[in-house]
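Note to self: the last two entries modelled the partners one at a time, which told us nothing about the interface. This time every component goes in together.
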Amino acid sequence: MSTSFTRRGFLGLTSAAALGAGLSACTGGGTSTGGGATQAASNNLRLFTYEDDSTIGLLKAQVKKFDEQNGTTTTVDSLPGSGAAVYPDKLRTELLGGKGPDVWRIWGGQIGSPFAKAKQALDLSKYYDKYGWDSKLNTTAISGMTFDGVKSGVPFVQLGLGAWYNKSLFAKAGVSAPPTTYAELEALNDKLVAVGVTPCGLGGKYGWDIMRLFEYLLEHTSGPELHDKLLTGAESWDRPEVVEAFTLFKKWQDKKWLPQGALALDPSDVEPWYVQGKTAYTIAGQWTEAGAILAAKKSPAGFGNFELPTDKSPARHSGFVEGYMVNAKTGNADKAAALIDFIVQPAAQKAMNITASTVKGAEPDPKSLPLSAEWSQKYGKNGFYTIQDQAFPKKQADQYFSVQSDLLQGKVAPDAASKKMQEIISAWAKS
Amino acid sequence: MATTVAVAKQPKRGGRWSPWLFALPALLVYVGFLVYPAVSSLWFSLTNWDGLSATYKFVGLDNYFKLPHDPVVVTAVRNNLIWTVVTIAVPTIIGLLLAIALNGKVHGKPILRLIFYTPAVLPLVSIASIWGWLYNPQYGAINSFLRLIGLDGLAQPWLGQDSTALWAVMVPAIWLRTGFPMLLYLAALQGIPNELYEAATVDGATKWQQFWHVTMPSLRPAHYIVIALSLIDSFKVFDMIYAMTYGGPGTSTQVMGTWMYFNVFQYYQAGYGTAIAVVITLVAIAVGIPYVRSQTREAS
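The predicted structure of the combined assembly is written out below.
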C-alpha cells in the first residue's frame, strides 16, 4: 500500500470525522417532526418550571396533593437562574427530543408565542370551557397567553414592576417618603450618591434587567398612548420622545445612579443588593419579597415599594404574565389540564405564596407578604405596559439591548440610538 | 535432498466480510450519531426551518448568502481569529516555560505541578462564575486590589465594555488551558536523553544554544499534539463566552459558536444558524488539513 494512499485516506477520515462532529453539534437528532408522535397515556406527568429554591418546595407540596387525590405521579423539574434567557432553549430542546414535559411554565407575550405558533403547545380552549377559567382568571392576563386567537396558556401570575427599596438607606440620604414625580426621583438619586450609596441596582448581562429602567424612562417621556404604539411599530422610534428617553438613560449611568459597570453584571447577583445594603433600590416585581427579602431572613418592615413616577396619566408600570402550557403531544392532556386547574385554585395559589396571582380570591396575604399585598392594593389596579422583552421577539430584543449597550458605552448618541431602534423595529414589522 | 514444506492454506472464516462485521458496531454508532445528524444539518442549512415547527421550506443557498451581510458574523469572525491566536500562543508558551522550570531542580515539584494543572479539571461554569466575581467592577478582587495599591485609574468594568470584554474572557481561558501543554511538555522533556545535553556541553554550546538546538527539536512531536489540540479547542470556543458575557456587551464578544447557538436556539432561525455551523466546520477543516498533511509527511 502506498504512503500517499494512506495519507489521503487518513485525511479523508479526519475530515469526515471533523465535519460530522462539527455539524452534528448543531441539531442533535436532526429531526424536523417537532418531537415525534403523541406520547402514550399514563398516570405519570412531568412539570417543567423555573422556580428557585425559595418557592420550588411549595409547588412540589401542591403537586403532591394533586397526585394523592388523582392517583398520578408528577415529576417536577426546575431550571432556575437565568430567567427568560436560557429556560426556553432547554424547553425547546426537550420538546424537539420527543420527551418534552406534559406541562410547563412560561412567560407570555413573545416568549411564549413561538411554542404556540409552532403548535408545540396545546389549544386549551376546551379546558377553559370545562374548568371555567375565563371567569376565574384575570381577563387581561388571559389575553397575554392567547396567541393568534388561540388560548395556549393558563396565566396564574400577572406581575407589575416597581421600585423596591431599602428604608434605612433612604433614611441615610435624608429621604422619608418615596418620590412622587420624576424630578423627585432624580433628586433622590443625587442625595443617595452624595452619601455614598448607589441608587438603582440593575444588571445588564442578559439585557432584560437594565431594560426595565429604559422602558420606564420611555413611558415617562412618551406617555401611555405613544409608548404602546412604539412597541407595536405603529409609530416611529426616530422621534424626540425616544431621544429624550435615551438621553436620560445615559444620564443615569453618567451620574452613577447605576452600579459601576452595570452592563456586565448578572441580574441574579444585583437584584438582591438592595436587601444587602449595596444599592438603595431595584426595579422588580412582587417575587422579590419572597425571593430576596424573606429569603435573606430580613423583616419586610425594613423595605418598601413604590410605582416609578411617570408624570403621565394614567399612571402605569411595566408588567407581564406567566402561566402554564400543555404539551400538544402529551398523551395525558386531561390530567395535565386537571393539574393546572388544581394549581390555579385560590387555596393552592395562597399555599404557594404566589404574590401576584391572576386567580380571583388569591390575593397576597398581608400577614405573610405585607409588601406584595401593599403593592397589589396601591398599584394592582393600574394599567401596565408590556415589558419590552415580551413585547419584541428575542432577536429584536437582543438588537435593542445592543443599542442600549452602545449608548451606555458612548458609542452612539441618543439620536443615533433612536434611528437604530427604528431600523430594528421597522425590519421586524416588515418580516 | 531438498525438502519441501507444504503449508496448508487455512480457510478464512467469514471471508472478506469479517473486517466489516467487526467494524459494524462502531460504524453504526458513527453513522447514527455523526453522519446522519451531519447530513441532516447540511440539509437544514438549505431551509428556513425555525427549529420548532414541523414544517419548513427549501431556500437553497439563501442562508449562506446572508452571512456576509450579517454585522454580527463579521464581529464573530474577528473575535474567533483573535481568540484562536491568543489562546494557542499564550498557554503554549507559558506551558513550555513552566515545564522547563519544573523539569529542573525545583523543590515541591509535584505540588507545583498539581497547582498549575488544577484549573484544567475545574468545571468551566464554576470558573466563569469565579472570574465573573473577580471582575466585578465595584466589589471584585481585581479592582479592589488595583485600588488598594493606588492604581485606581486602572480599575475598569472589565466585562462591561467592548474594549476589554473579550480580552478579559481570554485571561481565565489562558489560566485554564496552560496546565495541559505544561504536562505534555514536561513528559516530553523527561524523554530527552541526557547524553544529548552532555554532548552539547562538550561541544561548548551555551544553555540558550542547547535550548534551541537540542530541546526544541526534541519537543517537535509534543508541539504537534499541543498545537493540534489547542486549535480544536480554540475553534469550538463557546462555553466560556456564553457563561461570562453571554456574547455582550451588545454583541461585542460574540464568536461563531455562540452566534450559531443564538440563531438556532434563541431566535428560531435554525436554518440560518445551521449554515453558520457548516461554515465553522469547513473553516476548521480548511485550517486543519494543512496541519494534518504536514504531520503525516513528517511521520512518513
